[in-house]
Inverse folding.
C-alpha cells in the first residue's frame, strides 16, 4: 500500500534525506516551522475538495504538518511565535 501521509515516497529521493529534513538544514527551523503551519492551513482549507484525495487524507496531512511544527517548538528550535 502506498504511504501518502507519513514519509511518502515522492518526498524521499534515493541517496538523500527526506525533503523536510533537507529544508530544515537549508532554510532553518523558523522557516520550516512556518512552512508547516501554512501547509497545515492549506490542507484543512481544501480538505475534501481535491478530486482524487479524500477529506480524511487531507486532514491527516494537516495533522502531520501541525505535529512537525509543534515538535520544532518543543525542541526549542523556533525563535518566534505568532
Amino acid at each position: 500500500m502506498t504511504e501518502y501521509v507519513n514519509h511518502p515516497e515522492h518526498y524521499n529521493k534515493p541517496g538523500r534525506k527526506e525533503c523536510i529534513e533537507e529544508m530544515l538544514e537549508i532554510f532553518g527551523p523558523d522557516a520550516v516551522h512556518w512552512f508547516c503551519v501554512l501547509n497545515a492551513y492549506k490542507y484543512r482549507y481544501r480538505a475534501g475538495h481535491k478530486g482524487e484525495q479524500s477529506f480524511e487524507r487531507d486532514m491527516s496531512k494537516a495533522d502531520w504538518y501541525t505535529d512537525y511544527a509543534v515538535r520544532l517548538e518543543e525542541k526549542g528550535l523556533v525563535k518566534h511565535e505568532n
